[in-house]
Each structure stands twice: as structure tokens, then as C-alpha cells.
Amino acid sequence: MKQLLLAILLAFPAIAFSDKNGDSCQYIGSWLGYDSSGEIAWTSQANGMSSSKGTILLELPGFDITFGGLFDVINQTSNLKGAWKRTGGNTFIYAGVGFAYNSDGETVWAARLTGEATVVGECDVLALENTWLSIYAVNYDTDPIPIWTRDPDIGPLPFAPHEGYRVKVDLPQ
After folding, report:
1. Given this model, what pLDDT does residue 13 score?
2. Cβ neighbour number for residue 166 with a 10 Å cutoff
3. Could you tell me the pTM of the whole model?
4. Which phi and psi angles does 87 have, rounded to 5°?
5. Mind listing the pLDDT tens digit for each residue in 26-52?
6. Looking at the domain that runs over 27-165, which CATH code has it been given?
7. Are strands 75-76 and 53-59 parallel, antiparallel or unpaired?
């Protein structure tokens, strides 16, 4: 009986403090991303009240918001904003939305970026696959709300698999 009690007491901290879902890596944090050719291409920040779901901010600096002159836009929302959720131990899905507008302040297009992410390595590398960008030319007379419930006007456009790296707090010595 004493051996059983000792075994339970020794196991309790491991049970009490382990991740009940068997999750070993978190998505929550800030990431610096590279495209498939190795160029810095994006930053993101995943937030959440739990390890299962939360919100995401994604910035794509240098992205051609005119799509080669197809759209007459002057600016876009600076970040795609969206949500993420855990699909397995270290796997996640996400969706972010943003829009661009013209010189009159009218929305010209809305974008939706979706994808799958896996946290790998020592929980410091984000492997991204099945990333798709869909663009919706806005027509307020006919568009459903939300707009992504209809087929996109452009896309979905695939992105090649690429990676991001966790931003760490490590000061120079």
C-alpha cells in the first residue's frame, strides 16, 4: 500500500503540470517568416487565452497590393487579422483577412489567407504548408456578408511551403 501511495505522489506533479492534450509546442508567440526562396517575407503574432485557439496578426510587407496594376488602390490594412486553432499535438490552422482601398477611401478588394502550420524543432520553427490567398473584388450591391462565403475573384493562389522562426528574447552579451 505504501508503494502505491508513493507512486501516486511521485506521479502527481507530472500529471498535474503536463499538457492534458499531449501538446508539446505552442503556436502562441511572435514569428519572423521567410518565403520559399529564403527571403524575409512576413511577421506574425499569435495570441490566445489557451493553447487551443486564439487570434493572429500577420504582416506582409512588400506585397503588391495592385496585383500588377489590376486594382487601383493606394493603401491596405497594415496587418491581416484573424484566428487560429489547434488541430493536433503541434499542428494548427489559421485564417486572416484584410482589405485595400482607393483614394476615395472605398474598399476595392478584400483578402483571405488560410493555411496549416506545424511547430517543429525545439518549438522554435514554424513549418507552413497549404497556404492559400483569395482575393475578392468588392461589390456592395451583390456581395454576401461575410464576403468569403462566395467564390473569390482571384485564387485561391497557393504559396510554396515555407518557414518562420520564433522571436526569442536573448540579449547580446
Report:
1. 35
2. 18
3. 0.81
4. -115, -10
5. 999 999 999 999 999 999 999 998 999
6. 2.40.128
7. unpaired
**pLDDT for res 172:** 85
In 3D, which of 52, 47, 77, 53 has the Cα closest to residue 65? 77
27 in helix, strand or coil? coil
Dihedrals phi, psi of 154, to nearest 5 degrees: -130, 125
Determine phi and psi for 149, rounding to 5 degrees.
-80, -5
Please count the other Cβ atoms lying within 10 Å of the Cβ belonging to residue 144. Answer: 8
Q: How far apart are CA 141 and CA 139, in angstroms?
A: 5
Can you tell me the distance from the alpha carbon of 71 to that of 102, in angstroms, rounded to the nearest whole number?
Answer: 9
Element at 10 (helix H, strand E): helix 2-17
| 74 CB-near residues (< 8 Å, 6+ apart) | 101, 102, 103
By the 8 A CB rule, do 129 and 99 touch? no
Whole-angstrom Cα distance, residue 26 to residue 119?
Answer: 7
Asked if residues 50 and 62 have their Cβ atoms less than 8 Å apart, the reply is no
Cell of 80: 491581416
Q: How confident is the model at residue 23 (pLDDT cuts 50, 70, 90)?
A: low
